[in-house]
Description:
Two copies of one chain form a homodimer. By secondary structure, chain A is an alpha/beta fold. Chain A has helices spanning 8-12, 26-33, 37-44, 52-65, 71-78, 94-109, 123-135, 154-158, 182-195, 211-226, 243-255, 268-280, 314-326; strands spanning 83-88, 113-118, 140-143, 163-166, 176-180, 201-205, 236-238, 262-265, 290-294, 308-311, 336-339, 342-344. Chain A has 13 helices and twelve strands. A six-stranded parallel β-sheet of chain A has the order 2-1-3-4-5-11, with helices on both faces. A six-stranded mixed β-sheet of chain A has the order 7-6-8-9-10-12, with helices on both faces. In chain A, α9 packs parallel to α10 (211-226). The relative contact order of chain A is 0.11. At the A-B interface, α5, α6, β2, α7 and α12 of A face α5, α6, β2, α7 and α12 of B. The first copy, chain A, binds a DNA duplex through residues 1, 8, 25-27, 35-42, 45, 47, 49-51, 54, 69-70, 72-79.
Amino acid sequence: MRFDDSNRNAMSRGRRSDMPTGVATIVDVAREADVSTATVSRVLNGTSGVSADRAGRVRDAAERLGYVPCGSARALRRQQATVWAAIVPDIANPFFTALVRGIEDVARVRNHRLVLCNSDEDLEREASYLDIVIAERMAGVVIAVASNRDSSLAPLVERGVPTVAVDRRPAGSRLDSVVVDNRSGAAEAVTHLIASGCRRIACISGPRRVSTSTERLDGYRDALVAHGFPVDRALVRRADFKEDGGYRATRSLFESGAPPDALFIANNPMAVGALRALRELDLAVPRDVALVAFDDSPWTTLTTPELTVVAQPAYEIGRVAAELLATSSDARPARTIVLSPTLVVRASSTRTPVESRRRA
Amino acid sequence: MRFDDSNRNAMSRGRRSDMPTGVATIVDVAREADVSTATVSRVLNGTSGVSADRAGRVRDAAERLGYVPCGSARALRRQQATVWAAIVPDIANPFFTALVRGIEDVARVRNHRLVLCNSDEDLEREASYLDIVIAERMAGVVIAVASNRDSSLAPLVERGVPTVAVDRRPAGSRLDSVVVDNRSGAAEAVTHLIASGCRRIACISGPRRVSTSTERLDGYRDALVAHGFPVDRALVRRADFKEDGGYRATRSLFESGAPPDALFIANNPMAVGALRALRELDLAVPRDVALVAFDDSPWTTLTTPELTVVAQPAYEIGRVAAELLATSSDARPARTIVLSPTLVVRASSTRTPVESRRRA
DNA sequence: GTGAAAGCGCTAACAC
DNA sequence: GTGTTAGCGCTTTCAC
């Protein structure tokens, strides 16, 4: 079949006129500009070596027909898409949205499209998105894994898909990654609670399968041990990093015989749940319970009292990860970049001596 | 070139063994299973008419090679991808994340992929995402437009891309859409403020180009007029639907000669900014200023006082929109589905008579 | 039931 | 500079 005997284009170009009604292809543009498809391709891809006259005609024709090159055909031919994927476990968590903004901004500058995928902390959904990444031959992935162990990044690595891990560090894979020093951040938070006079500090951490959970819990223990406090298993809860998990963990802590006088909560959504529980239990912060949570967010200064948090440089994590992605190559060895969190002390954790010790 | 003289596959299959190291194609699977590519395709697409024996061999081979069909090639051939796009103006706004969750859940059931795009209320970014939708020949779009007028959905419509508008209603296009009754919701909120004894009710709305801004402002005016209040232009601000805009509008309202005694704020991020401003100005809610905001979110019950809001059924909007998208066809006429918002009265707007009228 | 082969829209050799 | 042409990997007639 030759271009000129194709009747496809009669259809794709509307009934009577030259108005682009269907989908214009490169062939339509070529015919409209009276050049070859190669020339069209060259003009539209900025390849040099086309006369100004013809280039102008091509651009006009493309404009007139509302031509948008077909991404699939292009990707198929080039064996490479320009799309990046960001896979995060919770799109409603401000930490991850800020992180995504960081990726986005780099992607735009680098001329990459970014699509966002929400794994919802679910391995199956994550796997299905990883399949898409492979199927669409995407140009790169930034991922906060749903699990350090089971997240099967292996297929990506095997196929040489540039991949950067953020926030959570997948076990055993030699990948570029950008994380924060969770352990120190947590230790600093708990040390601060100790300094505020808290004695029974509870920790609500996340699921075992996620590195940040474990590291933040380790930091909590470090601080207790460093100050000669016992590490009481009854004061530790593993929740799911979601609001309801934080709520239930908090209730369970206070419904036990010996309630805590402080809460260290390992992420933002769980802090929302915890605060809800404390309201219901009619417990005042910081008088009855002091509180420090991981991750800052827009609303943490709107509560009464304002929340003390371990703030992560979320936007920066995303930005750095995307830069790493943009410059990734088999040549250079995998890098792990560790950024530092910052303890932001506000009213929820500062207790005057006279106020404390209400409960033994 | 025939299949068997292709040396591409030698490369794509690793150095020595059958281990899938590069990217396996349908040809690899066909060879491995000793069938034709047509048969592989039939098996993997569930087309009937393949013997159990061969089907089994194909599945085994695909499994063994870690074969993932190439989305571009498939889309190119089928002239249709299965991907849906959701384009929203602010990914950090809980309203939109909830809405996206609604879309996601339907997409999964309907076997569509969903990618998320953040237009950031920016027409240029929105346009660039619309280009992608066209370039990738996506199967459908749910969009909350950045502007009713200028959002150029026309290319989508011309090309017959199934499109559903949510939250904001694009002017003049005959599209399926799912919105809430903003005007009534706003009127109800303002009526409630009036009933609480507020006299100088200010409104912080969004940009002119967005329908929700105008509708919520109209509702505000409706309520004032209905109760014989003057509509004072000095009490109306147009901000940008973002936190800083809410902050600045609030400061400007209170730095004017005659400050309001109540604030009606047209979305959630601006409410964050407003609350921040009120804190700085040392104004107490609801004593000095009563407050009602559009959109509920996880933190609205964590502030002191809790926030009175006009809650939208965000998840439901997304769900309905996606159902509309799934069942869209040229055959049926465009539908507009209007859902109802709910006024949730909390402490930020309820003022005891004795407390009010501090300022004339 | 099964395979051969055409061709989706594009880019990149390769010819001229 | 410009055009011709061979496929990228897949689905889908069309023959058998």
